């Protein structure tokens, strides 16, 4: 069985949905499970709904209506009439969202986030499944929440592999063609959970692992995995082959094409991952698997924007010893800060973090009671794998470097 994953950009409008069908007709869809994200920027729009729910109830109705109208436009373009049964199915899903926002009593932002935002994937796959049937491609729609079971760490749930393996093994027939949602799971109380932003790639890997799939293909709007993001770097090159280990390194440092958690389950069963273009499905793309570290062997550039650099020193200029560092890591963990870079000396400790959960100010208040703190918000973290002098010189040109760190194959620069 094969696993295909299509992201939001591939189904952002009716033309995108029609192109997806064209891709399936070109490459085949037998014995395939399709994992699909929310359409276009729906996740961002649903986040706006959640924010309105907590911060501006007057804006809530219009925020929901904006999402409904966006999908209705796609529906009308695809089906030409609102008499098709899929209109009622989509309406029911949006009625569920609005109903939840009425009866919910939980003040937990992350819980509410998962219950609301997850409908983006449910709606997109409902529309796509109906359109595939209309085009003569019979499929079975799966609610992924019935198969991927997690803990209740909302917005960043951890998979219960034993329960997930059991459900997928018993509930998925490898000879059929399925369509399901990325990004989502459910906890023991059957509340929706999410696997973190860009978690649809991870969903594809979970299904592949549990089904012993032959391959996973991630369909993107780029030719494959590039050595740099073309939005920020000129003359990006296609990487033809990457080893699992190298891909994990690139993902760890923030390469956006492959989700950091996607690769481990594939590597354990040596399931090849292909990244291909839905614009040019016959293109070779990139293969991630065993073997060659990188082909061609060129520097790889990664940029993470909107990071936070904190420089800490003890109030009395005494040494920052092991106990202090241990305490610092506990503070970072307690405030859900993702650590991207660390550098320390005898009397100072620098850390670059991703303030994903908006807990920075609380953390700073705590740190300033114990340390001297310099904080730089909105910095960018650049990473170059397989760097050379020309690559570093080119990247440094015209930039204010706040911190630099080098290893054998990797250099990282924090830039103001």
From TrEMBL:
Record key words, sorted: Amino-acid biosynthesis, ATP-binding, Kinase, Nucleotide-binding, Transferase
Keyword ATP-binding on entry: yes
Molecular function as annotated in GO: aspartate kinase activity
Pathway where this protein functions: Amino-acid biosynthesis; L-threonine biosynthesis; L-threonine from L-aspartate: step 1/5; Amino-acid biosynthesis; L-methionine biosynthesis via de novo pathway; L-homoserine from L-aspartate: step 1/3; Amino-acid biosynthesis; L-lysine biosynthesis via DAP pathway; (S)-tetrahydrodipicolinate from L-aspartate: step 1/4
Record-stated family: Belongs to the aspartokinase family.
Domain called Aspartate/glutamate/uridylate kinase: residue spans: 3-277
Domain of life of the source: Bacteria
Reaction equations catalysed: L-aspartate + ATP = 4-phospho-L-aspartate + ADP
InterPro entries: AceGlu_kinase-like_sf (IPR036393), ACT-like_dom_sf (IPR045865), Asp/Glu/Uridylate_kinase (IPR001048), Asp_kin_monofn (IPR005260), Asp_kinase (IPR001341), AsparK_Bifunc_asparK/hSer_DH (IPR042199)
Enzyme Commission code: 2.7.2.4
Enzyme class: transferase
Protein name per UniProt: Aspartokinase
């Amino acid at each position: 069985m094969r696993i295909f994953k299509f992201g939001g950009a591939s189904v952002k409008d009716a033309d995108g949905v029609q192109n997806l069908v064209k891709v399936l007709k070109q490459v085949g869809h037998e014995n395939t499970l399709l994992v699909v994200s929310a359409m276009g920027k729906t996740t961002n729009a649903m986040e706006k709904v959640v924010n309105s729910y907590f911060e501006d109830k007057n804006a809530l109705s219009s925020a929901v209506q904006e999402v409904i109208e966006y999908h209705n436009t796609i529906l009308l373009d695809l089906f030409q009439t609102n008499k098709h049964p899929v209109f009622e199915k989509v309406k029911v899903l949006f009625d569920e969202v609005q109903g939840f926002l009425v009866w919910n009593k939980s003040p937990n932002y992350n819980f509410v986030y998962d219950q609301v935002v997850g409908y983006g994937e449910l709606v997109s796959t409902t529309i796509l499944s109906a359109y595939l049937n209309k085009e003569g491609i019979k499929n079975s729609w799966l609610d992924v929440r019935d198969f991927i079971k997690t803990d209740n760490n909302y917005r960043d749930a951890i998979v219960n592999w034993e329960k997930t393996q059991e459900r997928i093994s018993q509930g998925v027939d490898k000879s059929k063609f399925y369509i399901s949602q990325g990004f989502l799971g459910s906890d023991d109380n059957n509340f929706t959970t999410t696997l973190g932003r860009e978690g649809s790639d991870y969903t594809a890997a979970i299904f592949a692992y549990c089904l012993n799939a032959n391959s996973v293909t991630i369909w993107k709007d780029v030719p494959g995995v590039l050595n740099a993001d073309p939005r920020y770097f000129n003359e990006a090159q296609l990487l033809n082959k990457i080893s699992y280990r190298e891909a994990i390194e690139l993902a760890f440092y923030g390469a956006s094409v492959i989700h950091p958690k996607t690769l481990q389950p594939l590597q354990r069963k040596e399931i090849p991952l292909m990244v291909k273009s839905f614009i040019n499905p016959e293109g070779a793309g990139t293969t991630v698997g065993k073997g060659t570290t990188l082909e061609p062997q060129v520097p790889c550039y990664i940029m993470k924007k909107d990071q936070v650099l904190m420089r800490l020193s003890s109030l009395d200029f005494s040494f920052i010893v092991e106990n202090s560092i241990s305490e610092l890591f506990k503070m970072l963990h307690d405030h859900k800060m993702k650590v991207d870079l660390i550098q320390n000396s005898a009397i100072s400790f620098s850390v670059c973090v991703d303030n994903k959960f908006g807990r920075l100010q609380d953390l700073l208040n705590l740190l300033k009671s114990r340390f001297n703190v310099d904080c730089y918000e909105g910095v960018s973290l650049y990473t170059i794998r397989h760097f050379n002098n020309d690559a570093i010189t080119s990247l440094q040109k015209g930039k204010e470097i706040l911190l630099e760190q080098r290893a054998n194959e990797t250099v990282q620069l924090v830039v103001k």
